[in-house]
Amino acid sequence: MYFQWNSKNGRKRDLIQRLELSFDVDRLEKDACAILEKFDFLWERKIKQLMVTCRASDRDPDFDGIGKQESSVSNEDFQKEFCQINPRFAGTYLEEVWRQFPYRVGRVRLMVLHERMCYSLHTDAQPRYHLALRTHEKCYMVYEGHPRWYRVPRNGNIYLVHTDVAHTAFNAGEGDRVHLVFDSCEGYAPKEKKSPRGFLGKI
Known about the structure:
By secondary structure, this protein is of the alpha+beta class. The chain is built from four helices and 14 strands. It has a single domain (14-184), classed as Sandwich (Jelly Rolls), CATH 2.60.120.330.
């Protein structure tokens, strides 16, 4: 069962939806974590993302595209810039999945949410496709104003996550949560009202 939200036209939509698309999560985790382990020293500095795709102009293909990106062009034009595989992932199963992915995507990242940590409450400019590589029963996604919590399971399936409703994710247990996240080229219409600001810290 998925979250449902009433849109402006009165219709309901699934905020998180499991797609009939899956990959070998064991292979993905093995290749991803072998690379993430090389960056252990960065996690203490709160760098929790690693780029899988990159732009031709990036000086540092590992980190130049992480975080909230400000752009003067449309979401689609911005996403199209991330058209190359980060050389660090060349020849891995992550590159194979990226090349086989049937939806139009741009920026692809490994996103690590450490134990007892929480993202700020925010919205994003585009839907995201999530694939859980590492998780546990105390990792959740939450939408503002919605009474239910949702957990993306580690089952190899791709989950379409709508992000134009204010949301967060938190890890309330032991062990890291690692997701492979694809940004869709299909952006949302701009909103006049800014998303609420939350916090990032220990819980």
